[in-house]
Amino acid sequence: MQTKVDEKQILVKNVFDPIAKKYDLLNHLLSFGIDIYWRKKSLALTKITKEANLLDVACGTGDFSITARKFGVTRITGLDLSFEMLKEFHKKSDWAIGNIVQGVAEKLPFKSESFDNVTVGFGVRNFYDIEKGLDEFHRVLKHGGKATVLELRLPKHKLFKLLYNLYFNKVLPVIGKLISKNDVSYTYLPNSVALFDKQVKVDKILMEIGYKNVEVHKFTFGIVQCTIGEK
Q: How far apart are CA 209 and CA 72, in angstroms?
């Protein structure tokens, strides 16, 4: 008998495995390339250093990890549930070989206080238990280490929200289907963002877990939020 955990993991794998080969193209195309800026800005706000030992959770094809490399970080571990996404990460980066793990945020296979930084880019809404996942981040972080959560949100401005929803719910699924030949994945995306925006306050969860100096930064008219918490 499948549990809700099993169902969510199967759903996420079924969403991301089929589009892995087209994921980067669609990401950059559908965000007009601004996703590159969002990652850079998040790491700059985190004040990540070259000496950091970084864990990139829900790393996908590795764009957050690759951005961190450009900041001079060399000790990077990537973790993702989707094996197909990890395969694409391997193809893009020789240095990633041996530093990528298949797994989930809620059960990180690492010792406590192992990392200086933990990042998750556009993946926290796919966790089957967000609070448990963020608590695991806290466990594996060293004292003074930081968790950085980058995630899509719905804009608050009424007119911009109307235009955003039109693009997100009507245009994006069509383009996604045409390029990836998969209509499920790009229907899931707007639905998951809407549900996440309505139900989840990342900063509140971080503070309840015990993170301190929690910061919230909004990018591009509020369609993306970067939340940073320190252990």
A: 30
CA angle 103, 72, 96 (to 5 degrees): 35
| Cβ neighbours of residue 172 closer than 8 Å, sequence gap 6 or more | 30, 186, 189, 190
Evaluate if residue 182 carries a pLDDT over 80: no
The strand order across the sheet containing 100-102 reads 100-102, 75-80, 53-57, 115-121, 141-152, 224-230, 212-219
What distances in angstroms separate CA 28 from CA 11, 18, 34, 35, one per listed residue? 23, 18, 7, 7
Name the residue with tokens 């549930």.
81
Rounded Cα distance between 74 and 124, Å, is 24
pLDDT for 1 equals 44
* Residue 38, phi then psi, degrees to nearest 5: -60, -45
CATH architecture of 4-154+200-230: 3-Layer(aba) Sandwich (3.40)
Tokens of 164: 């955003």
pTM tops 0.85 = yes
